[in-house]
Amino acid sequence: MEPPEVTLENSDAVYDYYRDHRQNLVKAKLAYWLLGRRFQPRVGYAVGARKELRDFISAGRPLVISINHLSEKDPYTVSAAAWRSPLRPVIGHTRVLAKHEVFADAKMRGTLDMMGGMPVFRSKDHESYSVNAASERLIDTCAMVLTRGDSIALFPEGTCNYVDHTRVLELGGGIGHFVCRARERGADPVLVSLGLSYGPRPDPAAELSKADVRSASFYFGRPVGELPALPADITDLAREELQAALDGAVAAY
């Protein structure tokens, strides 16, 4: 199937494509390995988190990997951290949600598809009611990915945090909805919270230097295998867990 143009008007075809798309495992693992060597982020863990994460992965539980968002450089440093952590086995089997604009360039599109990218049509970028239908398709596609046994990684704040790099913004409700829908289909996802810090930043909106990017601090909170029943409660829990992970990343910087 040929990759469809990533536009809101074409969202049905877009999610039909990404529902069934498979990454090239060899190329994906090589790309993550290269990023791991290039950036070499520090990765820390809450007590017990490393073993629990490995155990959930060994058991075949799909992961919902929630990460705070500070910079356009985050996808690169997160990929590096994934390679240098227990997440390595799920590389090539994880969808990474990204704003649809980055899929416009053909060369970048190829890289995103290889790395597991899946486009998101954000309501903040569109005034059309059709974005609601696209969001429903995204939620359904994420649920199907989890039901298949693959994982989802996302920045649930939905935008870069240029306000306070030590505090998680309010989360969108999508994470709660696609987890619930996946469970309706028989999946049993695990919430994994990964905090990210680039150190003290007097101006959170300032562009990161190469030194900032290379010194990234990541911190895994303990994975949560028993999630609430309601979407809103899952979203609230995801924010609490992500804040705890961010606190760990800031403290470990």
From TrEMBL:
Q: Which superkingdom? A: Bacteria
Q: Which Pfam families match?
A: Acyltransferase
Q: Which InterPro entries match?
A: Plipid/glycerol_acylTrfase (IPR002123)
Keyword match ATP-binding: no
Keyword list (alphabetical) reads: Acyltransferase, Transferase
Does the keyword Acyltransferase belong to this entry?
Answer: yes
Recorded protein name is 1-acyl-sn-glycerol-3-phosphate acyltransferase
State the organism's lineage.
Answer: Bacteria, Bacillati, Actinomycetota, Actinomycetes, Mycobacteriales
Residues forming the Phospholipid/glycerol acyltransferase domain are 63-199
Q: Name one GO molecular function term.
A: acyltransferase activity
